[in-house]
Amino acid sequence: MKTLQGKIALVTGASRGAGKGIALELAAAGAYVYVTGRSVNGNLKKNSPGNIDATVEEIVKGGGLGAAVRCDHTDTRDTESLISRITSEQGRLDILVNNVWGGNELPIDERLFWEQPLEHWNHMFESGVRAQLLTNYFAIPLMRIHKNGLIIHTTFWDRYRHISNFYYDLSKNALVRMACGLSKELAADGIAVIPLSPGWMRTELVLDAFHTDEAHWREVEELQATESTRYIGRAVCALAADPKIMERSGVPQQVGYLAEQYGFTDIDGRVVPPFLISE
User: What InterPro entries is this protein classified in (predicted)?
Assistant: First the structure.
């Protein structure tokens, strides 16, 4: 169903992974989707499958509409230029999905804080938290014009339980607090701001790490509880179409619980429960 027909959406960091899955689902629901990232055709990092052009090609192939715009969201001028283009072409922005993330550039392990490389700060805060903040800074004035909309921050959250990696825990909770703070400031504008937590997704890099692909992941025992990247996309679509979305604004949401509440499934028909941290 085209529940989002006529809506304008921006999904940052949509070359692959959750961003790509969200972009595809938003387009399938009828939204015009701007897809951003740094990877474009002919300019791929080693071991980084996918790019924004390929995402839009898949959108169009599925009957949707969208545009690929190369943008480094850590760069102020790049980000401002992106929003200026959306303003010029559309005059509005209804859905913003802040998904850009640079935190996996280094291996994320469970060593103690003082044993971890300080470079984690740059990858997780400069290329993650600050990049999402910067996009908000330029996009929010455009969204406020029409006094409604939805901002999503993809993050990880499980009842504020500690995530084993210090930097990862700190940065993901910073995104939760960013969303919570903005929800207060945007309440009068009718713009909902929601931190959204997926489970263990079968991203391209996860599948590669287990030497498999989307067609054969069921053959890998360790991947049985995983979810596709389209699952979080369906959660975003359900939230964006909810007339009572403001009731959830500022409240962290987990994709698995949203599937139960809104009645959607993953692409294989399963309702995958949320990923929970053990006590």
Answer: NAD(P)-bd_dom_sf (IPR036291), SDR_fam (IPR002347)
CATH number, domain containing residue 242:
3.40.50.720
Phi, psi values for residue 62, rounded to 5°: -85, 5
Tell me the per-residue pLDDT of 112-162, one tens digit each, with 9 for 90 and over: 888 888 888 888 888 889 999 999 999 999 999 998 999 999 998 788 888
In a domain, 277, yes or no: no
Q: Is residue 22 part of a domain?
A: yes
CA distance 124 to 101: 7
Q: Is the pLDDT of residue 164 over 80?
A: no
Closest CA to 227 of 218, 236, 219: 218
Provide the number of structural domains found in the chain.
1
Q: Tell me, yes or no, whether 186 lies in a domain.
A: yes
* DSSP code per residue over 44-101: --TT----HHHHHHHHHHTT-EEEEEE--TT-HHHHHHHHHHHHHHHS---EEEE---
CA 253 to chain centre: 13
Inside any domain, residue 184: yes
Query: What predicted TM-score, i.e. pTM, was given to this entire model?
Result: 0.92
DSSP 8-state secondary structure symbol assigned to residue 168: H
Residue 12's nearest CA partner among 90, 128, 150 is: 128
